[in-house]
Automatic annotation (TrEMBL):
Residues of the F-box associated beta-propeller type domain: 94-271
Protein name: F-box associated beta-propeller type 1 domain-containing protein
PANTHER family noted in UniProt: BNACNNG10540D PROTEIN (PTHR31672), F-BOX DOMAIN-CONTAINING PROTEIN (PTHR31672:SF10)
Top-level taxon of origin: Eukaryota
NCBIfam families (UniProt xref): F_box_assoc_1
InterPro entries in UniProt: F-box-assoc_dom_typ1, F-box-assoc_interact_dom, SCF_F-box_component
Organism: Quercus lobata (Valley oak)
Length: 304
């Protein structure tokens, strides 16, 4: 009789080549074998059933290790907003907290543990005069989450002293600050942190009535310092309303003011429409590179 004992790395390689639906049949018997397997997946789904109450606005962040963060805002909920974790691969969602961010003073950071379904305050949280901005692009890379941040002279936050990048190390659970490059600022410029071609990058957007352009800076890290290098510039007509994603193949995805998703090839300068969606003044589009995970949200709800 042949032995059924196979090396673990071979088992993982075999399982990673199997369809997700097939693997899901065995989630109750060998969950440990599935925890690190990832496959490509795409889906269209109504996210509103994930929340306990009807929501008026939805903010999506991530993914981080295949899990999306959903933040639902409701005009009827005066005491806070719902935070939901969502795994598209397993179709699971889980409400992990209802919190009032508007009253979250002093500034406090907490880590959620999925296995124990509990929150823990991080010791030595950041300076109370810091303001941390919501990330408009995916900004997680190699165990670090990165945000744009500002320091203010007092708690009124009327005018900022400086801008910088703040990073959270998920392994050591501490924060690191990084100076930004010497960019030229004006009232019509915005800064965003993004991950481009597996590098932490800074996107500086400038615009006027005639043109919109983006300066892209890439961070290089050594054992002693972090430095920024300006890599390229993208110039577009102002009709291209919002940048959505930089692809590794050199394509940049935009959304124009009419709702078209537009691809710009930086090498050939070709611009072409690929799809159109209905948009409104309250709509918000994001584009992410998603790698599936079979991590299960303990006692989460499954949306068929």
């Amino acid at each position: 009789m042949l032995s059924c004992d196979l090396p673990e790395d071979l088992v993982v390689e075999i399982l990673s080549s199997l369809p997700v639906k097939f693997l899901m049949q065995f989630k109750d018997t060998r969950v440990s074998l599935l925890s690190n397997d990832t496959l490509e997946v795409s889906s269209n789904i109504d996210l509103s059933p994930f929340f306990l109450e009807e929501i008026d606005m939805l903010v999506i962040d991530g993914p981080c290790n295949g899990i999306f963060f959903l933040y639902g805002i409701s005009s009827e909920r005066y005491y806070g907003e719902e935070i939901v974790l969502w795994n598209p691969a397993t179709r699971e969602s889980k409400v992990v907290r209802i919190v009032d961010f508007r009253r979250c003073k002093p500034l406090q950071f907490e880590v959620y543990n999925l296995s124990t379904d509990s929150w823990r305050v991080i010791d030595g949280s950041v300076n109370q005069l810091y303001g941390i901005e919501f990330a408009m692009f995916p900004s997680y890379l190699n165990g670090f989450y990165h945000w744009m941040a500002s320091e203010y002279p007092n708690i009124t936050m009327s005018s900022r002293i400086r801008c910088f990048m703040i990073s959270f190390d998920m392994s050591n659970e501490d924060f690191q600050e990084t100076l930004l490059p010497p960019i030229i600022k004006d009232p019509f410029s915005t800064d965003e942190i993004a991950i481009i071609n597996d590098s932490v990058s800074l996107i500086v957007e400038y615009f006027d009535v005639y043109i919109r352009w983006y300066d892209i800076w890439v961070m290089r890290e050594t054992a002693v310092e972090r430095t920024w290098t300006k890599k390229f510039k993208i110039c577009l007509h102002p009709i291209f309303d919002k940048m959505l994603e930089f692809r590794e193949d050199g394509l940049v995805l935009f959304q124009d003011s009419d709702g078209w998703l537009v691809v710009n090839d930086r090498k050939t300068q070709e611009v072409r429409n690929i799809a159109k969606y209905e948009i409104s003044d309250l709509s918000h589009s994001i584009a992410v590179s998603y790698t599936e995970t079979l991590v299960f949200l303990n006692e989460g709800n499954v949306i068929e």
